[in-house]
Design goal:
The chain is built from 24 helices and 13 strands. By secondary structure, the chain is an alpha/beta fold. It has 4 domains: 170 residues, P-loop containing nucleotide triphosphate hydrolases (Rossmann fold, 3-Layer(aba) Sandwich); 62 residues, Helicase, Ruva Protein, domain 3 (Orthogonal Bundle); 139 residues, Zinc Finger, Delta Prime, domain 3 (Up-down Bundle), CATH 1.20.272.10; 152 residues, no CATH class. The termini are far apart. The structure holds zinc ion.
Length: 586
């Protein structure tokens, strides 16, 4: 380990041509040297690790070289070049203003400037992080910068150009260094890998380049770090694991699931991403970047804007063929919405899931597509399986059933407690427990209103057997004994106080005497509905209640009263009672 040299140092460029990704700057500098029109002071600006100091050193070396090549590069052979390459040249003076920013530091430097170099033509003063100099130090420096001796050249470097005072800016030739392009970085990494005898997958290098955000130095440090894990081999999968990068594979998969409206696959993928320790916010931002890249890849003229490997570019191009603009733009909008809402959201996971569902529903609201057999929705961190087979079909049937369910037209001195508005299941429930349900398409419509998501639906086919009022009353009796068996005797009594009436469209109206009874029924409504629907083999059955406010004396409390009421409805009952010799008051 003792002779290990970090790649950033080992592969520091020694000629202008070897500088990565700053071609316009190096060629300008070379031209200036060629024409002997070199400025006295330079300001190199730009982010860290992109070659400012390297360029400064190469410039210093080149102007002092005894045999500049035809190509305006240092020969790297003469005495001056050799001493530069060994970091032993007296012609270059570097000052790191980050740690030496006092007036005294600058004065010491200024004192040196007066002396002409003993070998070579120029003394070069490189001041790194020049924005860190104190105001006094700046002022002390200003005069020298204004009238430097001919043998002195200054190269100031900064990551924060806006902090440089105008008097300095106006005295320097300014060069703005750009972030190094991903392709340039990855090519350079490939060169380093080759020189080191390391087998590296192209995509792995690309990923490192992406992660280093335009900084060549960072990419090389990252490269070194990864090599130390993986012994002369750099594979894509390994890089992903070590850098904890959300793999673009995921985004390709997610996008194709979005296009197919495969909610099942989407939720599973998102779950996998979370399980791998990624953040939902990170994911949604990555997804928008991916969609943006697809947008760019749609046209061959903008395809070059994609800073990806050739193979990857091709994949983006392929996927973009399936993505219409009418999908991409609303999808990007929805991603953006999710991004904005993310921090305020209490159920972040659900927010992302809903966004995914909304995106996948783009262009699918009307088209009937293959619905997934079941999918998982997370509610309060619990995963629930939802089977949504034939959802579209169900929704159609529901639409066909008239609206009268909601508008119970019950006449007389009564008040209708409308419970159908509270998301009543219109389909059979497989589970014993109480479940709230919504159809998927209804869910999409209601998402903007932040409604609950359905928990459990199990649908095979909706039953719609016809039945008579009498048959309904028979089943009603069974409901009463069923709930009593379950130990809910109060409910049983409440259900038995009045006889329910059968309205159109299988709507059962149950009269009740007060609102607490209504509440009791509401609470157990699902159980009652399930029982009735199974008994009568009809999934369109609904129950609603009405509170009878009228004369209390009308309420049949005793068996005799009840029987009298029944006779009102069906006079044959009295004949039957007499024939059988029954006593209604038994
Ligand atoms: Zn030379």
């Amino acid at each position: 380990m003792s002779d290990f040299i970090v790649s950033a140092r080992k592969y520091r460029p020694s000629t202008f041509n070897a500088v990565v990704g700053q071609n316009s700057i190096t060629s300008t500098l070379k031209n200036a040297i060629k024409r002997n029109q070199l400025a006295q002071s330079f300001l190199f600006c730009g982010p860290r690790g992109i070659g400012k100091t390297s360029c400064a050193r190469i410039l210093a070396k080149t102007v002092n070289c005894e045999n500049i090549t035809e190509n305006i590069e240092a020969c790297n052979k003469c005495v001056s070049c050799k001493s530069f390459n060994e970091n032993a040249s007296f012609n270059v003076h570097e000052l790191d203003a980050a740690s030496n920013n006092s007036v005294d530091d600058i004065r010491r430097l200024v004192d040196q400037v007066r002396f002409a170099p003993q070998i070579g033509e120029y003394n070069i003063y490189i001041i790194d992080e020049v924005h860190m100099l104190s105001t006094q130090a700046f002022n002390a420096f200003l005069k020298t910068l204004e009238e430097p001796p001919k043998h002195a050249k200054f190269i100031l470097a900064t990551t924060e150009k806006h902090k440089i005072i105008p008097t300095i800016l106006s005295r320097c030739q300014i060069f703005d260094f750009k972030r190094v392009g991903i392709n340039d970085i990855s090519n350079h990494l490939a060169f380093v890998a080759k020189s080191e005898g390391i087998v590296a997958e192209k995509e792995a290098l690309h990923l490192i380049a992406q992660k280093s955000d335009g900084s060549l130095r960072d990419s090389l440090s990252l490269f070194d770090r990864l090599i130390s894990f993986s012994e002369k081999e750099l594979i894509y999968q390994g890089v992903i694991e070590h850098l904890n990068i959300l793999d673009y594979e995921y985004y390709f998969k997610v996008t194709s699931a979005l296009l197919k409206n495969d909610i099942n696959a989407l939720l599973l993928l998102f779950n996998e991403i979370l399980d791998n320790g990624f953040d939902g916010h990170h994911f949604i931002i990555g997804l928008s970047e991916h969609l943006r890249d697809i947008l760019v890849a749609k046209d061959e003229s903008t395809l070059q804007l994609l800073e990806k490997g050739e193979v990857l570019k091709q994949r983006y191009f392929e996927q973009s063929k399936f993505c219409e603009l009418s999908f991409l733009i609303p999808a990007l909008n929805l991603c953006n919405e999710c991004d904005v809402q993310y921090k305020q959201s209490n159920n972040k996971r659900l927010l992302v899931e809903l966004s995914l569902m909304r995106i996948s529903s783009i262009g699918h609201q009307t088209a009937e597509k293959k619905s997934p057999k079941s999918f998982i929705v997370t509610l309060n961190d619990e995963k629930k399986h939802i089977s949504v087979e034939k959802v579209a079909e169900i929704d159609k049937k529901i639409e066909k059933t008239p609206e009268s369910h909601k508008k119970s037209e019950i006449e007389g001195n009564s008040e209708v407690a409308d419970i159908s508005s509270k998301s009543i299941p219109r389909i059979s429930l497989s589970s014993k427990k109480k479940s709230k349900t919504l159809s998927i398409t209804a869910a999409f419509k209601q998402m903007n209103e932040k409604k609950d998501v359905e928990e459990e639906i199990d649908v095979s086919k909706l039953r719609n057997a016809d039945f008579s009022s009498t048959k309904m009353l028979e089943s009603w009796k069974e409901v009463i004994s069923f709930v009593k068996q379950k130990g809910k005797s109060n409910l049983g009594i409440t259900l038995g106080v009045f006889l329910p009436e059968l309205n159109d469209n299988f709507l059962i109206v149950l009269p009740l005497s007060n609102h607490s009874q209504v509440e009791m029924i509401l609470e157990e409504k699902y159980m009652i509905l399930e029982f009735l629907r199974n008994k009568l083999e009809n999934d369109y059955i609904e129950i609603t209640t009405k509170v009878i406010k009228g004369d209390k004396s009308n309420i049949p409390y005793t068996n005799k009263d009840k029987f009298a009421k029944m006779i009102e409805q069906n006079p044959h009952l009295e004949t039957l009672r007499m024939k059988l010799g029954l006593d209604p008051d038994y």
